[in-house]
Amino acid sequence: MIVAITYELIKVCKQSGARLGRVHTPHGVIETPCFMPVGTQATVKTMSPEELKTMDARIILSNTYHLFLRPGHELIARAGGLHKFMNWDRAILTDSGGFQVFSLSEMRKITEEGVQFRSHLNGDKLFLSPEKAMEIQNALGSDIMMAFDECPPFPAEYGYVKRSIERTSRWAERCLQAHARPEDQGLFAIVQGGEYEDLRKQSATDLTSMDFPGYAIGGLSVGEPKPIMYRVLDYTVPLLPSGKPRYLMGVGSPDALIEGAIRGIDMFDCVLPTRIARNGTTMTSKGRVVVRNAANAEDFGPLDPACNCYTCQNYSRAYIRHLLKADETFGIRLTTYHNLHFLLQLMRDVRQAIMEDRLLDFRDEFFAQYGLNDNDKGF
Amino acid sequence: MIVAITYELIKVCKQSGARLGRVHTPHGVIETPCFMPVGTQATVKTMSPEELKTMDARIILSNTYHLFLRPGHELIARAGGLHKFMNWDRAILTDSGGFQVFSLSEMRKITEEGVQFRSHLNGDKLFLSPEKAMEIQNALGSDIMMAFDECPPFPAEYGYVKRSIERTSRWAERCLQAHARPEDQGLFAIVQGGEYEDLRKQSATDLTSMDFPGYAIGGLSVGEPKPIMYRVLDYTVPLLPSGKPRYLMGVGSPDALIEGAIRGIDMFDCVLPTRIARNGTTMTSKGRVVVRNAANAEDFGPLDPACNCYTCQNYSRAYIRHLLKADETFGIRLTTYHNLHFLLQLMRDVRQAIMEDRLLDFRDEFFAQYGLNDNDKGF
User: Fold this and answer.
1) 0.95 exceeded by the pTM?
2) Residue ranges of chain B with per-residue pLDDT less than 70
3) A–B CB contacts, 8 A cutoff, strictly below
């Protein structure tokens, strides 16, 4: 059988154990570890596909829940699929809708069959199940699909999480059965289990027995302290097969990207860079810069003198601040471009450091320059 | 003396009398007749400078009133001038602030010295005069500056308009005196006079006696029926010197651009293409298309099959409609790009028709295709 998604291990960092690799998809090769910009509604907010290519984004994430609600997966299928609809010919990963059903929608009712909920847009009564999530993602035509999972909140009680991962495993099996296009689209399973080591192990054991082409770790970066997240990674990643990509969902702060890579993660996604950009906050080599601050009013230098992105090569903090204060969307384009470029460049640097067997040194250098210490590793 | 702005007449259309020419500026040559996109707050809303260049915009307009209020002309001067501040190395025209003082601000008090008013942003008490308008525009460093004028509303009583144009002429003289950089920046005067032929003549006679490098016609497209505007052009344009550019302020509907060119106008500006784009309305070769309409929900064709712009080459009506309905600013980027490209392409077509001595035929063909007839020539 032709497999849509394959992982190629290039080397392991002798200093950290991080992996340098490639994920091969029907829409191109992704160098890993990688960060995936989020295009929730079939667009990475404010960015054109060409701009994403200029910063060498190889894969973006789009949201099944949002596209199911609007404009509808059937419409996108009639448009020729999500790639064509949004003019993006590189890889796309779609989530399963599970996380949004649990975080955005109203009036959820969970049964073994699936989840009944009301649309956060118009209150329509809707239903998602493993089979429906596959139908939607098959219609969208993403390169990587995610299995439909139940996402327990953090913290959640042990018994609840145990019942939840067992259901998630049964749903994963149903997703495999329902997936109509395995030769075109790779389906990843999601390991859950909260902060309970034995439940993470149970979930990983169940799911890896089913032979998915990739595995995600879900239920992290949902409010828990970062040391807990790192500890979960420490004992969960080794449970995943080394020949397949490992995806840490919802993580995008610079420190957590590095720490995740050190722990063997290959793929990350997060709305952080685009969301904070819209508030006028940027990531730079010296740490956070809130462009709106009065200190930048007459700063005619770039956001980050160390950055070679379009924004930093052409525009001053004073100009960007003016645009943001005047509610000009071009200002948000410039901060969004910069933040995404910053994380994609960070991942290039991480890959280079793995190549040179010095990712732990790189981490320490980056943290020192970024102004992070052991007590302050949140972005 | 070196003159910053010169006009080169290439030819006159034998069929219509329209002029094909070039305006030479310190930041490049502008083929005329031309349309100038409006970048009110030092940015053409949603567009990058590179995008404006891709559609071959040679000159943009920016607003003295807005930049005076925010971020302030002194800050822009310290940034190295408006071109550098906004990363635009082609020509810029700045208006005088007169129109905005009369249309946007509050608590106006007009004296011979100037106009006292309150900022529409924060209520600050401010003062603009001919000297101040020159100081601001000299600080901005625009290629073409506009003389500070009084803008009577439409309709206005004869005696009021007469007193107003006489003041505008005295203010124009003061602008000439106050202009500190005539070798770097060209100063255009604005002919006013409402719909009173003798007052237009008096205003034009006064101002042309002062030898400005270009002349604008102001006080039109302010609510009067288009036939009145065309009649004013019919008797005003011939009063202007043929060796200098003629600029019709605030006009940007496709029909009025063509009718203005036929009457000898060389330059136009208007917020229309960018403003309607933000409401999801587009100009196409077949007339207006309101992209938000349900009829476009499953239309996978382009906004305009006859258009070769970035938007039409890459995106469907269905996708753009989805973006607009989902409040994604990329949708407004796409409609803005298209509308500006549409008007810039229209002006290229107008110039070609002048070259071929067939602008009247072109007008009739355009109007027929655009769905305009004699009773419906408003956009």
Assistant:
1) yes
2) 1, 372-379
3) 95
